[in-house]
Amino acid sequence: SLVVLFGATAGAYGAKLGSDERELILLVWQVVDLHSKKVGTLHKSLVKADNLDLSDQCREVSGLTSEGLGKAEPLDRVLQQFSQLVSSDLKVLGRSSYTLCSDGQLLIRQVLHPETSKKNFLLSDCFYSFYDLRKEFHTCYPSSAAVKDQTIKTMAEYLGLGTDEAEEDFGVWQVKTMVAIIFSMLSEGCNHVFTEPETVKYKYETGPCSKSETVDSETVIRARGLPWQSSDQDIARFFKGLNIAKGGVALCLNSQGRRNGEALVRFVNSEQRDLALERHKHHMGSRYIEVYKATGEEFLKIAGGTSNEVAQFLSKENQVIIRMRGLPFTATQEDVLGFLGPECPVTGGKEGLLFVKYPDGRPTGDAFVLFSCEEYAQNALKKHKEILGKRYIELFRSTAAEVQQVLNRYMSTPLIPTLPTPIIPVIPQPYTIATGSIRDCVRLRGLPYTAGIDDILEFMGDATGDIKPHGVHMVLNQQGRPSGDAFIQMKSADKAFMVAQKCHKKMMKDRYVEVFQCSGEEMNFVLMGGTLNRSGLSPPPCKLPCLSPPAYAAFQTAAVIPAEAAALYQPQALLPTTRTPQASAAAPPTVTYYPAQAAQLYMNYTAYYPSPPVSPTTVGYLAAPPGAVAAAATATHTPILPQPGALVRMQGLPYNTGMKEILSFFQGYQYAPDDYNGLIQLSDQARSVLQAPKEWVCL
């Protein structure tokens, strides 16, 4: 038996049904016995919505009023009546089982499932399997219009069914016409058989994803604006009614390893993806979520993994994953199990723990834990910020994709990137923050928080060539996050004036950016922690400023000397390693100021190198003739970096450590001679803005 079902919401109708999040206000249904070709009673039920304001289209098409709906029953009561009446009609027809049949998929997938999920009550099993009359009709009549172009009216016209929509109430005509179409499909000329119903997944299935998999770009979307604490199950609930592929939710992390409010979601086919795009700006709680198309490559970059250890850890299916952060570096598996306690047993004991480590085996303080059920996971989350050893531990819900991302991030990070075979010469110029009252700088205000140096350069267009070396300065707030401001030093006041006139209120990533001309003195105040507003300049606080480059996504893997390392040396200290004349001849004739996209530096924000005092956006500097480069390289006063492997970095030194203590520490080892020139301390200028422990580099 089939139960032919039709519904309407208080908003959009037809192809946009459910796209505006409006509630269901009408259900009409009738039981059809496919064997005896008999029908049950036709039922029409109004549904009382929480918001009784009807759209103009709804009033015009349905003829319903807010007053009439105010007397109806709520959705949960109507669905109970639906089940009771269907069972009664089936009993009269001598049948016991049935499957729903609707006009398309929107009523089931885009209306009923999302609404009941938001109202926190469960749909009966019958709503997880249904026949799409449009698909069945096209299968029966291949010469008819495409499925996406079908409507009840076009199907009736194709069969020549003489029905007048104006003679019946809204909903009644639709159901009667659908029943007539079904009987035509069952006639002797067609003998159509309903065999393969559409299905809705009961729950989201977790699982690993390998980078070797092929992911169709027509099945992936990007969701933006998610609450930071949302899990993969929350995202699956947002897309309730649509079938997400196994392990198809990948929460994106920023360069600090924290969630950035975005996720990539992979669906089982392009049809489900297209339905997901219709949920653009639907709400998760009080927040609206933006939904855009994405690619399979983007999904694999976030969710794909190659580690056998991770694959084995995630091989246990349908587990709840919890991420622990802030663990003591000395914490063992026994310590973690003891911290969690018997009330939240870990799946497989020690096998259900995965510690995240650096490539050299040092712990990062992160770990992932598997739990077999939601109850155990909830018990574990109650221990959020409890103490283990002398540290409080943070616990969050996690996903298989997040496990892959975190492991990929740390395992692909070199402790200190090795100096590469020189590709371009690198001769840093002495850096000085501008001072004076000459208005040769511009201030960018209102930048997108995701904007980087490349975005600023693209925003400025042709004026990029008028920027001074190291002239782009990103301003971060006290939490170390982008503040939306940046300062740019131009070659002259005229150039700064032209940029301010040309780029003021120009768009960057859906936001307009304000551009003001300012002086080096004003820029210096803000960079050092002061404020600049209509009231004038406010001096920097006594607390040191928080300046650093934008947070990059990962470490640079290409062979490029990291600009962060330049902060460890005095000016003119970095030179290319020894090259043969042939290699020098093959070098480019000039040194570019801004690198191409392929040479973009990336940086793990969490460790390894302190941030230099300005934006580390360049590999080279202003164009210089090869002769000048060679002359600088042969200067006797400039120390040359040793071959890779001869350089070590000391981290965690006491603040009062001096040269004598370091030499004593390395007693018995041979270091570079020349009056201890191999011992290079961080410059005072760099340290004044780094707020980092004293560090030394030994050659």
TrEMBL record:
Protein name: Epithelial splicing regulatory protein 2
UniProt lineage: Eukaryota, Metazoa, Chordata, Craniata, Vertebrata
Parts forming coiled coils: none
PROSITE patterns: RRM
GO function terms (MF aspect): RNA binding
Keywords for this protein: mRNA processing, mRNA splicing, Nucleus, Repeat, RNA-binding
InterPro entries reported for this sequence: ESRP (IPR050666), Nucleotide-bd_a/b_plait_sf (IPR012677), RBD_domain_sf (IPR035979), RNaseH-like_sf (IPR012337), RNaseH_sf (IPR036397), RRM_dom (IPR000504)
Cellular-component GO terms for this entry: nucleus
Species of origin: Platysteira castanea
Signal peptide: none
Gene Ontology BP, a term: mRNA processing
UniProt family annotation: Belongs to the ESRP family.
Cellular compartment(s): Nucleus
